[in-house]
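User: I'm writing a tutorial on reading structure tokens. Could you give me a worked example: one chain, its sequence, then its tokens, then a sentence or two explaining what the tokens reveal?
Assistant: Sure. Here is the example chain.
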Amino acid sequence: MKKLLWFSVVPILFVFVLSGCSSLKEGECKKDIDCKGKIKGVAACYKEPPDAEIGKCMTVKKAKIARAKYERKKSGKCEDKDGDGVKAGDGCDPPIDCDDSDPMVKPDASEVCDSKDNNCNDEINEGLKGCVGTVMGGKQDPIVKFMSTMTAGVEAVPNGDIYIADEHRIYRMDASTRKIKRIAGSNKPGNDDRKGTLARLDKPRGMVMDSNGNLYITECKNNCIRKLAPDGQVSRYAGLCSGEADHTGLDQDGSWEAARFWCPIDIDFDKDGNLLVADMLNSKIKRIGKGDRKVETIAGKGGHEDEEGYVVFGSSNGPALKAEFNEPAGIAVAKDGSIYIADAKNNCIRLLKDGKVSTFAGVCAGGKDKAGFKDGKASQARFKMPNSVAVALDGTVWVADTGNHSIRKIVDGVVSTVSGKKGQQGYYDGPVDDALFNGPQTITIAKDGSLYIVDNGNYRVRHLIP
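And here are its predicted structure tokens:
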């Protein structure tokens, strides 16, 4: 007896017109050949059960997944172990309780400020004031939405959408549906200027959007600034865009084509619409002109050689071009034009205003042994490798204090810790006082005033509602 295959993919040499095909609806099929040209990729006619007369057109990959799910359902169970009135298991259609071991977790349950996805919507503690939750990522359970590779950047844009930079890709979380979709970049690094997921990126992190919907992106490994247009086209905006050894470690101002960066890491608009870039490994702040895209250093004199020939970086204040930074990793512009800089290896927050650099919070001194953790008066506070700053409309300066695994804020010259424990790395969602982070790297303020945080060591994006 001839074995019946649930789907088949064979080279198609001839196309025959069958009398029965005219009755098929859109997306339906009887054979693989019915799906030719209707599916992007290698097409198959998937039938469930396998001996069904009519099937659905899909790719071979999706057909295999659907087949495996069907087999699990046939042999699986559907039961209510925790007695919450909602069943779960492979035998359910669909398995609707995401955790059948806990009666507090089921679809439409009330979300509680804890470490669980109480309502089974793939978010933890969403919308709860005074709470920290997870919106994406993870390499170990719980994986929320999907696994992230090495989350680096997060940016809230004016319409409420959230953009996420992850290794070689850019994702967008829709403000209304909360769904996350990859919009640019592939699984491999590179610098190809193509559309959407065909483009290649390499270690993107900083992002900012203009009024026309163009997203500007810093790329550390490509040493340049890229632009992602609303139609998905990725293009070079400033710098060479190359990670080759001969093109790394360069520092040059000038036209957008001739300019050179060394691991540009963060970006923001100044009050005149120019782009400001934290050129991290050159320890400088650069400006890209709004109209001519000319690149110019506006703060930081870079490193200098010591007596033994090593390049060293300082922490001196004063006129902008004479001041010193030590790997500035974050930049944010307030509504009055003040520029705040997370001076990572100097363990402090700097202020660039009226052509001068000063210390805004912390004691600026290079080296891990000079770092610390202390709240209180800004001039006496201590930070450890702060990597990102964000400024709220009310003037509050938020800091991702990476080395201290905590989220800090500066209000009226006073530093306080909002979430995370001093020197205690971990992962825990719940009340802000109890939450744990592992190297929070990037922070952004959403339209509603809440914070989105790249929890780099936990491979996640967290959501904090003060």
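What the tokens reveal: The first helix runs from residue 60 to 75. The helical segments are 60-75.
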